[in-house]
Amino acid sequence: MIKKFLSPEICAECKGCCFFGKDDAWEIPAECYPRAFGGDGTVRCPRLSESGCALGDGKPFECKLYPFRVMNMGDNRVIAVSTYCPEIRTSPLSALLEFAESNRAEMLSEAEKHPGSIKDYRGGYVVLKAL
Ligand code: SF4
């Protein structure tokens, strides 16, 4: 199992990655796609409940892995991390690199079991490791 970089308590308090704008709709897992965005162009994940993700351990793979992602960059697969996450923005780069390295094989093998989670590289992510 891939270790968590952030504690569940931090994410339960934040829930920031359960809210989307039209520009980052590509981040929404297919099984959670909302029926419509609000008039302000944003939406909260329809699976988000007061106590967190209503899917629990059955949440989509990309949500389990976030703020990390396995992405396509040209002909390569890379591990990247989102700079949207406030905890990542204050984490030492050395800790992020170490996490990517120590979980490299498991991230890749799990991502390949969930090919829909592997997106083409986009800005807003920092590449940590080529696979
Ligand atoms: S944005 Fe970061 S800290 Fe906030 S819920 Fe998502 S992963 Fe956790």
The hetero molecules present are: iron/sulfur cluster
Arithmetic mean pLDDT: 95
- Taken as a percent bin, the fraction of beta residues is 15-25%
Biggest sheet: strand arrangement: 7-5-6-8
Q: What characterizes the major β-sheet?
A: 4 strands, mixed
Uncertain runs are none
Q: Total strand count, please?
A: 8
Following the backbone from N to C, one meets helices and strands in this order, namely: HEEEEHEEHHHEE
Number of H/I helices: 5
Topology, pairings included?
Elements: H1 8-14, E1 19-21, E2 42-44, E3 48-49, E4 52-53, H2 61-65, E5 68-73, E6 76-82, H3 86-89, H4 93-102, H5 104-113, E7 119-120, E8 125-130
Parallel strand pairs: 5-7
Antiparallel strand pairs: 1-2, 3-4, 5-6, 6-8
This protein binds iron/sulfur cluster (SF4).
The site of iron/sulfur cluster has 11 residues, from helix 1.
Mind explaining what this structure looks like?
This protein has 131 residues and is α+β, with helices and mostly antiparallel strands. It has one domain. It is 27% helix and 24% strand. A four-stranded mixed β-sheet has the order 7-5-6-8, with helices on one face. The protein is globular, with a radius of gyration of 14 Å. The two termini are 18 Å apart. Iron/sulfur cluster (SF4) binds next to helix 1.
